[in-house]
Every structure is written in structure tokens, then in C-alpha cells.
Amino acid sequence: MSIDRNSKRSLHTQIYEIIKSDIVANKLKVDQKLPTQKELAMLYKVSMITIKKALNDLIRNGYLYAIVGSGTFVAKRSMVLNFSKQKAIGLVLVDLKSPFFSLVMQSIEEHVSQKGYTLLLSKSEGSVEREKILIENFINTGVDGLIIASMSHEHHSTGILKKLQKSDFPFVMVSYIEDKDICYIGTDNEAGGFMAAQHLIDIGRRKIGYINGEDGNLLGEQRKKGLLKAMHENGIPFNKEFEFRLQLKYEWNDFESGNKIGKAFVDLKNRPDAIFAYNDLSALGFMQGVLEAGLKVPDDIAIVGFDDIERCQYAPIPLTTIHQPTVEIGTQAVDLLIRRMNKEKNFSWIGLKPSLIVRQSTLAGSGNIKTVTTTSHVN
Prior knowledge:
alpha/beta, Rossmann fold, four-stranded parallel β-sheet, Arc Repressor Mutant, subunit A, 11 helices
């Protein structure tokens, strides 16, 4: 059976049905190892993301099971994802295409394997309701604990998180949440905002603007808080006219949102001489917009992002950014979860200190300069 590229059904749905059909027809035997994701992508002539989607759905519905570091295998249909006799951790991810969370996921995958657990992946696809369903499904299948990257931008405990907390089910958040009674491991966003602003001040910029997240995104507000603190300590007022907001929801739209801001930016009569952007994707989109309009980076406008995704290094002007310690976030999330699974108590809200990565978007001809600050602190 082959996929139909003219079909209205998505490619990952078609691949799901092909593999499911082969399992039901016993063409694929129980415990048989599937080809690698790369081999499947080549076989069906689709992207790795499409293959991941299909396999994750097959795993979630009990047709396959995955062992991190070993591969994907055909499950016994009687299993129906019953991991009561296995050690399994569920990971609920915002989106597999997220540059930041994909790095965290890689760290989690490697560390879970080292600890002898099976990792199960599911993505919420931009839906808080789907996130709730996935969490409940994982609990029903018998996973020992959960690591959650939430879609909620309110950053307070949703109903399902409160339910988990009340029942004392072990889970760890790796997406920002303000509730200090929730077990959380992530970046100290305020400290990162402070670093970004202080760097711009140190290179002589005084008219500093900020690209904030969309309305209701308190993560952007935390980073802004650090920006304002640095400017206040240096006696520099913040011009409210220099704050810009992303207009489209969800991370995958941030490049486009930043680009729109960049295109409008060039027509301003009173422009900042530096921009700190809420994240790298919006910073890169903004950069493209101003470059296409004829401005020079960093001569006309210096730019700093936040995340340190791989694309920063290969931008038209390599992007100065705030590096989030994704490896540490992933490994510590696993360690914290295992401790909770072992009934240890008294867990704190932990913010790891980020570091500043200086590239040409703030210092022309500087090369890549890395200032590492990895000390963590507990709130």
C-alpha cells in the first residue's frame, strides 16, 4: 500500500493506516523492529516530522512501543499500552517542531534511557484540551510519571495539573509556570532578560526596544521584567512606544510575526537603536524584515534573541542570544521526576541561570564570543 499525495487525508494519517494494516494482517510480527525513522522517511518520501507523528499515534494507540536507544517495535495487541509491569515515563510536548522543546526532548530521551526507563511521547498540537486528554491517557496506561511542556500561556495550574497535584501523581513541568508549589525546572527568564539588556547597554545602546510575546503570554513578561530592571539600574528610561507584540499565537508563527514587526519598524520616525526579542524565532523574523528594507545590523539596529536555537548561528547576521540550558533542564527534569516517583517530598520551583552568547548581530566582526554562566538557583 502506498500513500496518495492527492488525498485530503494527511500524510502521517496515511502512514499510520498503512503500518496499522500491516500489523493487523500480521505482516509485521509482535516484537518485530521497524526500520529507523530516517529509513521510513526515505521509504515514504516524507519528512522526519511526518514519520514521528505517525509513529507517536501508533504508540499511543497500542500498536507499537518504543525503547529509547533501541528503536520502535510491534506491540502485542493485548498490551493496549499497559505499562504496569514496565518502567515508563510519559512526555507531553507542545510540538515536535518546537526548536527549544526539541532540544529539551533530546536531553530527556538520552537521560531516560540511561536510567533504564521507557519514554513515551505525545504532542498536544496547540490544544490545551488535547493536552488534558493526553495526560489522562498516559495515566490510564500506567506510566510511572510525567514530564509536561504545557500549551497554556496563562502559566497557572490548569484543572488537570491541579488534579495531578492533589492526587500526588509524580510530574515535572519543563514549560514556564508561576505557581511555586508545582515541581518545575526551567530557565530563570528574568535573569536572561537582564543579561540581554545589560549587554546592549554595555555596547552603548540607550534606545532599547522589546518584542514581547502575544497578549497573555507571561513568559514574555518575565523576560521584560529583567530588561526593565537592567535599564532602571543603569538610569535609562524605557519608552513604551518601543514595545512591540507578536500578533499570532503559537511558536510556529513567531518568525512571521517578528517579520511583520520588522517591516513596519523601518517606517517609524523614532526608532530604537537596539531590540531585545522575546525569542529567537521572532528575532530572526524581525532581522529579515529590517535587512530587506535596507537597514544594517548591528549598525542601524542591534538585535538580541532568547533561546539559542541552531538557526541563530546561520542567520544572515549571526544572532546574539540568551542560551537556555536545555541539556541541564532535560537531565534535571528526569532526575526530579524519578525522585518524585520514589516518593521523595519537598520539591521546589527551580530556575537555572542562562548565559549570553554574543554574535555579530550586536558586535560587527566580533566572531562568536561565549560568556558562560551556568549557576542555578532555587526560588
